[in-house]
Design brief:
Radius of gyration of chain A: 21 Å
Oligomer: homodimer
Structural class of chain A: alpha/beta
Number of strands of chain A: 5
Shape of chain A: elongated
Strand order of the largest sheet of chain A: 2-1-3-4-5
Number of helices of chain A: 5
Helix content of chain A: 40-55%
Largest interface: A-B, 40 and 40 residues
Largest sheet of chain A: 5 strands, mixed
Strand content of chain A: 15-25%
């Protein structure tokens, strides 16, 4: 029931590719590129992308926005017949929201060893003390989902290094200038 | 650092009483009565009450709405200088959001043995593997916070029993009626 690729179904790659489109849109807005979609009866009913910086809201993760959009579409907070696809392993907040929404199945792309709460740090979808558990599959389009994140953080590091170098250059010039002006 | 009443400060009871006002508003809307407020520099900057049924959104817990309102007020998703007061121990989703928002301090009223993720089922505010930890105090106006929930669920059970009895009564009348019409 719970494990990588043991319960993958035919349309998983298709819907994950739509979630990846959302992640790409997030990247183009300089947000950490994570995307999510909600599917019910094999129909896509909601999309979401990480918009934390854009919205300046701590809860604006891709999964949260997709779940809220799905609930709005279904006119119900109970999403018992739905599957959530997300490119990155959900964090504690998002797994909590998935459990609150009674999502039936979760499919995610790549693991998040630092904050993931489905496999990496916790296994919250399997806790039988809670009033809901759900099926989980992961590893769908894993290298694409991980790749878009790796590229984003590589660019971010590169930009930060360039800014630091420019600042260092200006500081050196200023120091030389101040030395040259000493009488 | 972490424990009941070991780090209570003077204004905790006042701000918890405001959170209780929010819980009372929720009860009047037939929502599970939980209320929350966000405080920064001893000033109240946001309020929230449970609105899951009203909004039909799985994420519309009191803490989530208070955090979103606080971020909107501060124009930043980082609420590093803020304290969150909530009448009931937060669930997994809400603790996740508290961590995402980098809340400095959490104060809650009563424990939630079935779903609480700060003391009862998990101790997520203390996990040093995550990129944020925070101070926690609980037991503030505990009996009031628990009392409003107990009263709500007692009324709910009473209403359900009355509905069941009325249905049973109608079914018995129907059965009698159908017997009396047998030739």
């Amino acid at each position: 029931m719970f494990g990588q690729n043991c319960n993958v179904i035919a349309e998983d790659e298709f819907f994950m590719s739509v979630a990846l489109e959302e992640a790409t849109k997030a990247a183009s807005l300089k947000e950490v590129p994570v995307g999510a979609v909600v599917v019910c009866d094999k129909k896509l009913i909601a999309r979401g992308k990480n918009e934390r910086e854009e919205m300046q809201t701590p809860t604006a993760h891709a999964e949260m926005l997709a779940l809220q959009a799905a609930a709005s579409f279904q006119k119900s907070w109970r999403l018992e017949e739905c599957t959530l696809y997300v490119t990155l392993e959900p964090c504690i907040m998002c797994v909590g929201a998935i459990l609150q929404a009674r999502i039936r199945r979760l499919v995610f792309g790549c693991l998040d060893p630092k904050a993931g709460a489905v496999r990496s740090l916790y296994r919250l979808c399997e806790d039988t003390r809670l009033n809901h558990q759900l099926d989980v599959a992961h590893g769908i389009l894993e290298s694409d989902c991980a790749g878009i994140l790796a590229e984003f953080f590589s660019c971010l590091r590169e930009t930060k290094r360039a800014v630091k170098e420019r600042r260092g250059g200006r500081a050196r010039l200023k120091a030389l200038d101040s030395k040259s002006s000493v009488p």
